[in-house]
Amino acid sequence: MAEVILAALLGACVGSFLNVCIVRLPEDRSIVFPASHCVACKKPIRWHDNIPVLSYVLLRGRCRDCRAGISWVYPAVELAGAALFALFYTTFGLTPAGVVYLSMALALLVETVIDMRYQIIPDEITLPGMVIGLIVSTVWPSLHGSEVWWGGALASLAGLLAGGGFLYLAGTLAEKILKKEAMGGGDVKLLAMIGAVIGWQGVLWTVLASSFTGAIAGLTLRWTTGEERIPFGPYLALGAVLYIFFGQSSIRWYIQMIGLG
Ligand SMILES: [Zn+2]
Predict the structure, then answer these.
(1) Which of 115, 129, 146, 151 is most buried, judged by most C-beta within 10 A?
(2) What's the pTM value of the predicted model, to 2 decimals?
(3) How far is the CA of 40 from the centre of ligand 1 (A)?
(4) Does residue 115 sit within a domain?
(5) 39 C-alpha to center of ligand 1: Å?
């Protein structure tokens, strides 16, 4: 139990760093320098006002200097970081799979918030993500149920191409039918990154799960707010994380059910 709490505390601190990425990546600024400052008054944030979640609560969501409101998204990302660390640690322990899947989930968390805010998916996440996905799959082929390095590498490459290719074709087709841009290039690269980590079966699952959740959320939003255009990236992210926890076991169950296993 103490280990899980430690994992959650570490996750909250990592969440604090993810917030820096969320603010600075869309503006093409360094994620290392300078130190964090208030977006309203530009004064640097004191170290004791930068404690994840706690500082937000103690300051009642306002800057100590200018009293400008601080977005609730910051503590929410820190809490999500804590929850993801605890969840992946209790499920996978300190294993290559645990570290790789947790890293992907954190990258997807950053992508989700940026996509919801700006309707963009930064290449700074997806392009290195594809390369890292290929490398870790080669180093740990067991991630794809293989025992040889080239098995992992091929599975990762197949996932990357399946993810990128599928959305690219679907987007081009939808564009021809709807006569307007249906799928952003960012979504294509995002699913390619996801595929490089979880393989082509993971891509299939992610597409199915995200179409389902995306359609429900899209219809709900259209009815309640009249919003037509919703970013698809967050649903791809959710689908990929669901695959890690439920996908592989449900695919095994399905194969047994239809009598192939
Ligand atoms: Zn301020």
Answers:
(1) 115
(2) 0.90
(3) 5
(4) no
(5) 7
How many domains, in total, are found in the chain?
2
Determine the distance separating the centroid of ligand 1 and the alpha carbon of 21, expressed in angstroms.
19
| One domain for residues 87 and 163 | no
Distance between Cα 63 and ligand 1 center (Å): 5
Instruction: Divide the 261 residues of the chain into consecutive groups of 10 and give the mean pLDDT of each group.
Output: 94 95 86 81 88 92 92 95 96 94 97 92 94 97 93 96 87 78 81 96 93 88 79 93 86 70 54
| pLDDT tens for each residue of 229-240 | 778 899 999 999
* Judgement on whether residues 128 and 87 belong to the same structural domain of the protein: no
Q: How far is the CA of 57 from the centre of ligand 1 (A)?
A: 16
Residues 63 and 146 in one domain: no
Which residue's structure tokens are 């640097």?
A: 44
- Domain hosting residue 191, numbered range: 120-261
d(CA 18, CA 8): 15
- CA 88 to centroid of ligand 1, rounded, Å: 35
**Token pair recorded at residue 114:** 């940026």
